[in-house]
């Protein structure tokens, strides 16, 4: 049985309630694998409404915006320097929003949610 966000089968006092209905497909929780630095690999996830979105498992390049030059550039991601979501993520090279990355063009900060969009958007901070 999968993890769900379905209504609880317990009363406030801790006693059991009777089962009213079965679990619904939209209540199942998707256990997300964090995005790591590595050769690009995407999977397609079916979302509500029948649409699909790309979820990266590994990613090795991103779109970097340089505010001084006011230009965008595709850059190679080398490693994660710092991640405020979790200290261990920087050691494991896991990318989340707000991560500081070392790229081929210098340091950059992740400004999007790569697990939702399938790509990494960066802003140069050097």
What does this protein look like?
The chain is mainly beta. It has a single domain (35-124), classed as Roll (Structural Genomics Hypothetical 15.5 Kd Protein In mrcA-pckA Intergenic Region, Chain A), CATH 3.10.290. It is 8% helix and 40% strand. Strands 4-5-7-8-9 form a five-stranded mixed beta barrel. It is elongated. 14% of the residues are buried.
What are the defining features of this structure?
126 residues, mainly beta, Structural Genomics Hypothetical 15.5 Kd Protein In mrcA-pckA Intergenic Region, Chain A, five-stranded mixed beta barrel, four-stranded mixed β-sheet, 2 helices, 9 strands, elongated
How are the SSEs ordered, and which strands pair?
Elements: E1 35-37, E2 41-46, E3 52-59, E4 61-66, E5 71-82, H1 87-92, E6 94-95, E7 100-103, E8 106-110, H2 114-117, E9 121-124
Parallel strand pairs: 1-3, 4-9
Antiparallel strand pairs: 1-6, 2-3, 4-5, 5-7, 7-8, 8-9
What kind of oligomer do you see? single chain
Name the average pLDDT.
Answer: 89
The total count of helices amounts to: 2
Strand content: 35-45%
State the strand order across the main sheet: 4-5-7-8-9
CATH topology term: Structural Genomics Hypothetical 15.5 Kd Protein In mrcA-pckA Intergenic Region, Chain A
Radius of gyration: 19 Å
CATH architecture title: Roll
CATH class: Alpha Beta
Shape: elongated
What does the main sheet amount to?
5 strands, mixed, barrel
The percentage helix is: under 10%
């Amino acid at each position: 049985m999968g993890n769900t966000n379905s209504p609880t089968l317990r009363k406030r006092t801790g006693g059991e309630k009777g089962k009213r209905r079965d679990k619904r497909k939209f209540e199942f929780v998707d256990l997300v694998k964090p995005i790591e630095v590595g050769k690009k690999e995407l999977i397609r996830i079916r979302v509500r409404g029948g649409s699909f979105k790309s979820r990266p498992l590994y990613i090795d390049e991103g779109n970097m915006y340089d505010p001084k030059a006011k230009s965008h550039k595709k850059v190679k991601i080398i490693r994660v320097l710092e991640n405020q979501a979790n200290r261990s993520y920087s050691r494991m090279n896991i990318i989340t929003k707000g991560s500081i990355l070392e790229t081929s063009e210098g340091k950059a900060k992740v400004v999007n949610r790569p697990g939702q969009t399938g790509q990494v958007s960066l802003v140069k901070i050097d």
